[in-house]
Amino acid sequence: MLKRYQSRQDSLTKLNYNTLNNIARCYNILGNIHESIEYLLLAYEYVTRSTNEENEYLTILPELGLNICNALNYIGNYT
Q: Whole-model pTM?
């Protein structure tokens, strides 16, 4: 039972991450970088809250962090 629940939770985590990341991409394409950053930060917060050492989403964090850094760099926010 716990394994099935964990599998369902992992699927929801992946779906939520992909949804937030795709919305961020859309805003990025539209040139609204500030809104894109907001969704990337929401995705980062969601994934870090849902991640544990055994979770496959640890591999998402470096890519997501890079996307956030690139967006902030684009608008000149180097801090």
A: 0.77
